[in-house]
Design a protein that fits this description.
Keywords: Metal-binding, Oxidoreductase, Zinc. With 337 residues, the protein is α/β, with parallel strands linked by helices. Helices cover 27% and strands 21% of the residues. The strands form 3 sheets. Strands 1, 2, 3, 6, 7, 14 and 15 form a 7-stranded mixed sheet that branches. The chain has a 6-stranded parallel sheet with strand order 10-9-8-11-12-13, with helices on both faces. Strands 4-5 form a two-stranded antiparallel sheet. α8 links the parallel β12 and β13 (275-278). α3 (132-149) crosses α4 (167-178) and α3 crosses α9 (286-295). The longest helix is centred in the middle third of the chain and has 18 residues, at 132-149.
Length: 337
């Protein structure tokens, strides 16, 4: 591929590290493309990446060549009512590049390449003590931070149950703990993933294959249920579990992507005053806040990085991630250096 040329408001990044996400599998299978038309014959996925600035546009003075940066995938059109209110991940011109909307690796070329162009507003300078592996995982933490944003409430003292010990769920445990949640419960189906949650200071681990997760969480909370349930698994039955797990008047955040339509007991939610929120991606500049926590040593990401592959072995990296070989969690592409 030719090296892209940055526009006036753009930054050219030489990618050093990128990681695979479930959305990338959908892009590869051509089941997911929102570029305003059919998927192109040639497209570069990748929305979780970090690297070094090698060129800046004529209007850019926020970054200089040599800066180490991490990306945020979403750039709204910044002209619709949603973007102007700060909800740029819900841009009303989603996929319309002519109006300024971009999502790296989903509607425009992403980071599974040596060079990528980002709008200046989607980059954050890395502190010296955060390496590229950690930086890439922090894009996932941005989704977690955004999920807690929509609750519009402090987490101090709130009981939080997290469903799904994937990268988002495991980081949700850490963030909930750092924001003062008590207790923090993690629900999953694989003990190896749950054990990582234990490293991240989850108070309770529940294997839903071995016991009824709804019953277990309610017992832990004295029969009332947690204040908040964060659903990160994307499993078909998880929404119904969350509805019956959370306390009366409690709140649910759906952060996982579902592969099929979901059936859930919404009448129970209505009758019990349960609020259901959704979140997509790392909006509200939440990656910056993730960086702030990490730079103070309050987030730990190394346990999530399980595999590294050079860019030329991307096919094997995809298969390793898709098939969860050797308990793959975060599969990294070593693009440059």
């Amino acid at each position: 591929m030719p090296v892209p040329r940055p526009g006036p408001d753009d930054v050219l990044v030489r990618v050093h590290r990128a990681s695979l996400c479930g959305t990338d599998l959908k892009v590869r299978s051509r089941r997911f493309f929102h570029g305003g038309g059919p998927a192109p014959d040639t497209f570069i996925p990748g929305h979780e990446y970090a690297g070094v600035v090698v060129a800046v546009g004529s209007a850019v003075d926020e970054f200089t060549v040599g800066d180490r940066v991490v990306t945020e995938a979403h750039r709204g059109c910044m002209r619709c009512v949603n973007c102007l209110s700060g909800s740029y991940t819900d841009c009303l011109n989603y996929g319309n590049q002519a109006k300024g909307h971009r999502v790296q690796g989903m509607t425009v070329n992403g980071g599974f390449a040596e060079y990528v162009v980002n709008h200046v507003s989607t980059l954050y300078r890395l502190p010296d003590d955060i390496d590229f592996d950690s930086a890439v995982v922090l894009t996932t933490v941005g989704t977690v931070m955004h999920a807690f944003d929509v609750l519009d409430s402090l987490l101090v003292g709130a009981g939080v149950a997290v469903i799904g010990p994937g990268p988002i769920g495991l980081m949700a445990v850490q963030v909930a703990r750092e924001l003062g949640a008590d207790p923090v419960m993690l629900v999953g189906t694989r003990n190896s993933r749950l054990e990582i949650g234990k490293q991240f200071d989850a108070d309770y681990l529940i294997n839903s294959r071995e016991e009824d997760a709804v019953v277990a969480v309610r017992e832990i909370t004295g029969g009332l249920g947690p204040d908040i349930v964060v659903e990160c698994s994307g499993a078909a039955g998880a929404v119904d579990d969350a509805i019956h797990m959370v306390k009366r008047g409690g709140r649910i955040v759906l952060a996982g992507f579902f592969g099929q339509p979901v059936t859930a007991d919404l009448n129970h939610a209505v009758m019990n005053g349960i609020s259901i929120n959704t979140v997509r991606g790392e909006g509200a500049r939440s990656v910056a806040r993730a960086l702030s926590l990490a730079s103070r040593g309050r987030l730990h990401t190394s346990a999530l990085v399980t595999h590294h592959f050079p860019l030329e072995d991307i096919a094997e990296a995809f298969d390793t991630y898709a098939e969860r070989r050797d308990n793959a969690i975060k599969v990294m592409l070593d693009v440059t250096g």
